[in-house]
Amino acid sequence: MSNELTTPLGRADFAAAMGFSASTDTPMGGPNLSRLAQVQAPIMREQVDTDGELEEKVVVPLGAYKLTNAEGNTVYSRNATIRLYAQKQQWTQWDSSSSTMHKTVMVDVLKGDIKDTKGTFNLGRPSKYVKDWEALDEDTKAVIRSVKNTKVLFGKVKLGKVTDEHGVAVKGYDSEIDFTMDVKNIDSKRSLDEALKDIVSLKFAPVEYSIVLSSKKEVLPTGNKYATMVASLGEETQIVPEDHVTAQSFIDYVDYRNEYVFSKWKSLRKPDVTIDPAILDAIVQVEEIPF
Hints:
Blueprint: H1 11-17, E1 34-38, E2 43-48, E3 54-60, E4 65-68, E5 74-77, E6 80-95, E7 100-103, H2 138-146, E8 148-159, E9 177-183, H3 186-201, E10 209-219, E11 225-236, H4 241-268, H5 277-287
Parallel strand pairs: 1-9
Antiparallel strand pairs: 1-4, 2-3, 4-5, 6-7, 6-8, 6-10, 8-9, 10-11
């Protein structure tokens, strides 16, 4: 089946082609995109106050958004406005011993056996719904806890006031930038889904409406703080021919990354080879023939 996009696309067709449906309940080379993420620990810097004393000051707050380009340059903004072209899902698992993020291929729905970079399926997580958690052994529970349901977003982002890690203003970020973003937090995904539902209810494709991202600070029982994403509707936009080019580039990106996972999975698989006893016996007899 061809991945080519034709122009023009209707709203419903455009949304379906990019992995959206009417309901939103549901070390590599190649192309690179800027990555958007949410800051989960404030960046502090020592500064001299009016009395000449050193004090620690927050220069990048918890919950701010950071954008890292393909060259590794990172900037920060307290808020961001995005337009979504595509969304996919995958299982991810961080391996701290090798500092590696294991992943499955990106799909529309996390269902069934999905190949991964470990040469297994679903990173070892059971593919079927677990009815009785307590009946599971501890190893399986540990795997389920470590494997994250990750929503992968693709779109264009426009940052608010942009600074570096020292809080110094940075220029050159006035226009929209192609990005990808991994979202794992349940509340953040729920907020995004609600915004997408609102867009669909207005009979628009997701790319036709901007979404404004802010943040909300949460507190764990331990007292540690973390941030979740808050998504709200922005403004209506128009689909232009360039959007189809951008959409195709995201499709190509997903295809390339998935192909890497497929090749990694295949290289790690050890096929079970069964030799018929009669054939094995024949081989032995041939080896014993004197010349």
